[in-house]
């Protein structure tokens, strides 16, 4: 068990009011003990961020850029210990943990290449009117358990670059790596610019309703996103919400089955399916349904699942017990409804003392569209395969439901796929790939999948407010009357 975790408030190491156990999802042993932030300590963190705000927002933009780059350097310098800690608490393989940490640095480096716009509204002999973007203030960054650092990069980079200060809260299930990063950065950023707190389920609502926080940037479930929005409403706190998805992929009949099967597999099962943009409904044209099903099942047999610390493991456990139980509930419902499993199904060792939250890679063979396994976001290593006859049917089914996060279309003819993709109701649509994100491209959800944007120029602007300054040039005072 790793010990000695503290929060970071005003650049100092702060013990919690109490501690709680963080479990390793691979064997349910204690990976470490995390501090619980009291209401008073949250007030201290927000006050520290507020005190640091004038100096940080006045820091020249180029200097903020350099300091955000220094954050990336400092975290990457601790890659080896951080990846092992991340695997212990999250469950993913060591290679995937390393990729997430390097991705955090990549996101910071990419984001600092962006600039805030300045719009000249009028430049005449009579007046000069310019709209600038200014920081919102103190940002509360609330991050989920599937990518504790990866998701944090989406928030910290634009928030800090835009001149805001931050209170960063990880999920109660995966706080350890975040706390360690906070410790690493105490000597990189000025005190109070980045504060890291951890705690139980009550900490998030206290943040969303805190009068000293000017913006909440949240990633997580749609259900909790609604609660975040409600909590922020009394103080009109700005929110950006990156929420749930039930992403469809549509496979046209002209695909090269062996070439596409591996890409579809990882599009669905990377990080054991615990990806907001994972393929969660795979619509396959009837002409290639059976061969693609067989190819996916065969490829799944070559992928090793187990504790992420073991050599050769590609996929780890589901991260936490509540999510594990939820996935088992979906599988149990499919079994009760008589759905066929091409591979996988309920864990054989469940209820027999088997440690860890492991769910077998599962392909559900053409369940009814109205079934739970199709209608609900599974967020685990389970994928329904769905047969379709015509494009109209596939598009209608893909667009049904409350979510609109991502989608993809697969075809040997990119133009034909693009024609289908333009009809899909999602914030991001990929053609012949999936989950490709960069810090230069805006990412947003439609319908119940989110509010606001992350990444790209629009994502940076989310962390600012417009301020227009108008200067009268003819030397006389004037007041506009409307």
Provide the β-strand percentage band: 15-25%
- Spatial strand sequence of the major β-sheet: 14-15-16-13-12-18-19
Helix content: 25-40%
Ends apart, CA distance between termini: 67 Å
Assembly status:
single chain
Category by helix and strand content:
alpha/beta
* Number of β-strand runs: 22
Calculate the mean pLDDT score and round it.
96
Global Rg? 24 Å
Number of helices: 15
Parts with pLDDT < 50 across at least 5 consecutive residues: none
- The biggest beta sheet, please? 7 strands, mixed
What spatial form do the alpha-carbon principal axes imply? globular
Question: What features would you describe in this structure?
Answer:
Strands 14-15-16-13-12-18-19 form a seven-stranded mixed sheet, sandwiched between helices. The chain has a six-stranded mixed sheet with strand order 9-8-7-10-11-21, sandwiched between helices. The chain has 482 residues and is of the alpha/beta class. The N and C termini lie far apart (67 Å). The chain contains 15 helices and 22 strands. The mean pLDDT is 96. The radius of gyration is 24 Å and the shape is globular. Strand 10, helix 8 and strand 11 (238-242) form a beta-alpha-beta unit.
